[in-house]
């Protein structure tokens, strides 16, 4: 991930057309999961879902499953914990330095993936795990614990000011082999995501994507090419004085 790549990604973010006429707000912590199928190493595919056309926020766009962090997410048990390098990067440039704050991000990404696609990621157990509330009950029913060591931290991005919704989002990836159980019927014409597709990363840019999704797809492609090690730098996108920056964590 050289300087030319970084400059090009920053330019993509800066050049995007945005309506910034909304009242400003504080960004909320959020997490997103890019599920990747590398069964064919020469043509990796990524899972994207199309949002319902009636949604006020990004209607009809293809996005990664994800959503806001909830307080109970940090309490969910896991079959393995975050790699130490991922934990350190998640606790960089944040006020809360607690390890359970770091783990709440990949856990939220896994939970939201289940809620939006029906795919439960982790490892099977012989008994149901003790879950911290109803939002995690599908994992107990499927006898699945999240497997945090197999989740990679890929990027962080804060929505620019004066947008209708602002998030401080951490983007993760996990291999499709981490799918331990599937709940059928979650994606439908009336759900938040009306369809999902496994798209080759190289072709996904042809879909109707938000700018940040396009940028992070390229970051994912670069990470795959670099070997997917946990100690690789993680780009952090943010604005300051109306200018975009890309800092490596």
Can you characterise this structure?
The protein has 249 residues and is of the alpha+beta class. The chain has a single domain, classed as Nucleoside Triphosphate Pyrophosphohydrolase (Alpha-Beta Complex), CATH 3.90.79. It has six helices and 13 strands. The chain starts with a helix and ends with a strand.
Q: Could you tell me how far the N terminus lies from the C terminus, measured between alpha carbons in angstroms?
A: 13 Å
Strand content: 25-35%
- CATH names the topology as Nucleoside Triphosphate Pyrophosphohydrolase
Top-tier CATH class: Alpha Beta
CATH architecture grouping? Alpha-Beta Complex
Task: Give a quick precis of the structure.
With 249 residues, the protein is an alpha+beta fold. The chain has six helices and 13 strands.
Distinctive features:
alpha+beta, 28% strand, 9-stranded mixed beta sheet, Nucleoside Triphosphate Pyrophosphohydrolase, 249 residues
Secondary structure topology:
Layout: H1 3-15, E1 28-37, E2 45-51, E3 62-63, E4 66-68, H2 84-90, H3 99-117, E5 119-121, E6 123-124, H4 137-142, E7 144-145, E8 152-158, E9 167-175, E10 179-182, E11 193-200, H5 201-204, H6 211-226, E12 235-240, E13 243-248
Parallel strand pairs: 1-9, 8-12
Antiparallel strand pairs: 1-2, 1-4, 2-3, 2-11, 5-10, 6-7, 8-9, 12-13
């Amino acid at each position: 991930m050289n300087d030319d790549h970084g400059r090009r990604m920053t330019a993509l973010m800066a050049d995007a057309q945005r309506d910034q006429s909304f009242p400003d707000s504080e960004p909320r912590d959020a997490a997103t999961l890019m599920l990747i199928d590398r069964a064919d190493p020469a043509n990796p595919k990524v899972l994207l879902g199309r949002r319902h056309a009636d949604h006020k926020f990004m209607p009809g766009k293809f996005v990664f499953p994800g959503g806001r962090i909830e307080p109970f997410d940090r309490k969910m048990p896991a079959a393995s914990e975050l790699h130490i390098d991922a934990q350190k990067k998640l606790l960089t440039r944040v006020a809360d330095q607690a390890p359970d704050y770091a783990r709440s991000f990949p856990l939220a990404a896994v939970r939201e993936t289940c809620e939006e696609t029906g795919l439960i990621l982790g490892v099977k157990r012989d008994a149901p795990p003790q879950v911290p509330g109803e939002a995690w009950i599908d994992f107990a029913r499927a006898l699945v614990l999240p497997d945090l060591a197999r989740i990679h931290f890929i990027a962080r991005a804060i929505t620019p000011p004066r947008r209708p919704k602002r998030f401080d989002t951490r983007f993760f990836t996990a291999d499709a082999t981490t799918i331990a159980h599937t709940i059928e019927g979650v994606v439908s014409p009336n759900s938040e995501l009306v369809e999902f597709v496994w798209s080759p990363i190289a072709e996904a840019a042809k879909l109707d994507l938000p700018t940040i999704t396009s940028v992070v797809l390229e970051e994912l492609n670069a990470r795959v090419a670099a070997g997917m090690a946990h100690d690789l730098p993680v780009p952090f996108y943010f604005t300051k004085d109306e200018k975009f920056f890309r800092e490596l964590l």
